[in-house]
Each structure stands twice: as C-alpha cells, then as structure tokens.
Amino acid sequence: MKKLQQKIGNWLTEHLELPPDVVLELPRITTIGQIHAYIENHHGLILFSDNELRLKMKQGYLKITGNKFVLKMMLPEEILLEGTIKEIVFIED
Amino acid sequence: MKQTQGVFFSGYVTIQVIGHHPELFFDLCAKKGVTVWNVKKRENTVCTGNIFLKDISLVKSLRRRTIYKITFLHKKGAPFLSRRILSKKPLLISLFLSILFVTFLSNIVWDVQVKGVHPEIEKRITKQLNEYGIYPGAMKFKLESPGEIQKKLLDDIPELLWVGVNEKGTTFHLEGVEKTVVDEREEHGPNHLIAKKEGVIVDMFVAKGQPIVKVNDFVEKGDLLVSGVLGKKNEETSKDEEGKKVNRGELVEAEGEIIAKTWYESEVTIPLKANYDILTGDSINKYFLTFGKFNLQIWGFKNPEYNQVQMELNERKFQFFQWDLPIGFVTQKVQEKELRRVERTQEEAVEAGIKQAKNNLQNKLGHEAEISFEKVLHERIENGKVKLILYFTARENIAITQPISQGD
Fold first, then answer.
1. Which of B2, B14, B23 is the best mutation test for A, with the most CBs of A within 10 A?
2. B10-82 is classed in which CATH architecture?
3. Which end of chain B has a smaller Cβ tally under 10 Å, C or N?
4. Considering CB atoms only, which of A44, A69, A80 is closest to B27?
5. Do A73 and B40 touch (CB under 8 A)?
6. CA distance B148 to B116
C-alpha cells in the first residue's frame, strides 16, 4: 500500500509538476552556505547537541553534523539551524 | 524568522531544561505549537531555549507529564521591564515630577529681547510689556497672542512705526522700527517751492527764497511759488535760457508755507436704514482647560443674561520644550452685544454724509488743513440710499519742494 502511494506520488510530481516535498512528504532543506540550514517537513527531533542534529523523516533519518549548533527557531515541522555545517547525511533504516 | 520578531514587546523567558535528552522536551513544545528559539545544548543533560511569556503556562503543564526539570534563567522584554520599573516608585515619581517640572519651565517666559530701537524706546517697550504681563518669569498661557501684543504695542507707543512680536519657544523676540521724525530737508541743497495742486493763495509765509506769486493769485499744479534763486526775476529767466552763464543769482533753499484755498468734490453714499452691532461693555471671562478637543471649564461658570453675545477665544497651548502639548488653556471672553437699528430721515442722512466725507477728506489732507463745507452739488435717493456729491473748500499748504538743477 505504501509503495503504491509513493508510486502515485512520483507520478504526480513528474507529470503534474506538483512540488515533491509536499506530495511525497519529504523534508525540504534550505541551506545558506554552511551557516544556516532550514528544514521543513521533518517528523520530529531525535537528537540535538552542539555538533549534531538528527531529525526523523518519513523514512529514515536526517543527520546534520558540524559545530556550534544553535536551534534558532523551532516550530512544528520546521527547524532553523545555525552553526557551521559540515555535512548532511540521509540515513535510511 | 517572522515568529521571533518583536519578541521584546511580548516578553520572553529563557528556560533551562535538565534531564536525559533535554532537546526532546523542546521538540515536544514545538509540536504543541510553542515557538521555541535559540535552543542551545550546554551540556549532555542541559539545554536552554527561549519561549514566549504567554506560553509559560502551557510549557509548565507539558513538563508535568515528563521527568524534566525546568528553571527560568532570564526574563526579558517589555512586560518584565515595565513591571520592574513600576516596582520602583521613587524613580517613577521623580520621573513624573521632572516631566512636570520641564513642562512648567517650558511654559514660562524666560527672556524678552527687544531689537532695532533706541534704548529709550526699548525701555518703554519693556515697561509696556510688563504692563501686559510679559516679563521673564511670567506664565505663557496667560498671555495674549503675539499679533494682539503687536497691535497693543503700536497703539500704546506712538513712536513705533512697526513692531514685530515673535514668540520663539520661551523667548519673546521683539523687533521695532521707530518713526523717524528727522527733518530731511537739512541737506537738500537749493530748491524751489512749487504748487502741488491748484488753488487760490490765501496766505504766504516765506522764510527763505524769493516769492513769485502774491496773495489772491490763482495757481495751477506745478506752478512756481517761491524761487530758490535770489536776485531779479529777469536774471533768473536769463539763467534759464542761457544755462551756466549767469552766476549772479544766489541759490538758496526756499522755505515757507503757501496757504491756498483749494476745492474738492466728494461723493458719498449713506443708507437710510442701518443695522450695526455695538458692544455694551459688559463682559465676563470663562476659562477652560482643553485636552485635545475636550474642554473642561475651570472658572467663570456664571452665565449672564445677554441677548446677543460676541465670543472671543484665546487659546494657549502648554508646551514641552518647543512642542505644543495637546493640553491648553483657553480664555473665552463673552461680550454683550446690542443690535442697533438706525433709521434716518433724508436730512439726517445728508448730515451724516457730509460729516463722513469731511472726515475722509481730513484724513487725506492731514490735520493741518482747514476744511469747510460749501454745498451739496447733487442729491438723490437710490435703493434706500442717499447719494451725495459734495463740494468742499480747504485751506492748506500747497507748497512742495523742487530741487534746482545745478546745471552742470
């Protein structure tokens, strides 16, 4: 069932040009250089420390590492991260 | 970032969460709709973040279901600031008093400066101003408007030709121009006296110069009356003709008065019926404090039984430094007015017309002229008005000076 949903979603984004982050419920990550990362559509925070941020996605995790991390703003499903970002890693389970 | 704008005004607190994975508590808050910002991990089990003042109770209730410990670190923003200031009564009172004091000082005349006049007149102006209540230390809102002061000063000090009253903050700047009563003829050089209008000469007083005309002569406008060239008449004429050749006649500055009988026609229209208002002289003053548009009467509650009234408003704003405050002091002068209705017969109208025309003429000719009424040339009634053409004769000085060209 989930696979079918994803297939429909893929088809919708490809043929109707709907934004994929909305249709597929994927996080949209906007970064400004390495100082800011703005993550929308995440599914909850798992871990946050000075040099790591881990967010739950629909499937798997999003891991951002770096240093001097500060969560500049937290809203439901939105997080603005500030600091020096080294890498953004998608981890599938 | 829109969510965290204006946080100063709504007020916010920094909370410290202690516990295992403290960031998860902030995540919980965010999920419940609490805006959280500036989340920092201090230590492994310590996390700080900011929340709005209004969310505190919600956060507290969320905490109750968890094992985290919350401490409030800082309270920032206007609500806390105002509460802190409000708790300092002496500061508040002194602030209020100082504002009051400055307002009070802003409404005092600090200086009166008079410029452009001699010290003697300056002293008189200052004295007059004192009488009007304008002196350093006077309260400003009791004073009249600069325009009125100007008018009064001009009336009371006849030597002043013009005076400008300018109220600049707490200082009154006065600039006066005196009437110069200087004989300007002193350095004029030789001149003739000629007639400025036509007339029959009645009297002559020649101080200097050679009279050309005699009493009972008729002169036209521009005729030579007294020559500034001493010597024989023919010599003078020869000089005129031959230019510089004749040096015989000594040139002087002719002086004198030539009184001539002149005549005037004037036209006046006098209505047979006239309505006019006169003030009976009865008046009362009412005083108001104004706050914006709201007037609060503070004195003069008596309401006199006047049939007709004329109001005069004088509003003065309180000032704070140079700015006008919306608070003011209003003096309302209620004067009793009486409506007079005059109905004149034709004879009375004619009489009034003659008087009026004579006054007009006197004003035009100056107070030295003697005017006598001769007769009514024409009289007709039109639309309830009497139209008159009057004939006057006057005895006046018709001499004016005319410089003699030195001819070189």
1. B23
2. 2-Layer Sandwich (3.30)
3. C
4. A44
5. no
6. 20
Query: Taking the model in full, what pTM does it have?
Result: 0.45
Residue pair B269/B301 in contact (Cβ under 8 Å)? The answer is: no
Q: Edge-to-edge strands of the sheet including B191-195? A: B210-211, B224-227, B191-195, B399-403
Chain A nearest-CA residue for B35: A75
Residue B345 vs residues B270, B273, B276, B277: alpha-carbon distances, Å: 11, 9, 17, 20
- The range of the structural domain enclosing residue A73 comes to 26-91
CA distance B104 to chain A (A): 49
- How many whole angstroms separate alpha carbon B81 and alpha carbon B87? 10
Residue A48: CATH number of its domain: 2.60.40.2000
Instruction: Tell me how close the Cα of B12 comes to any Cα of chain A, in angstroms.
Output: 14
Cβ pair A48:B38 closer than 8 A: no
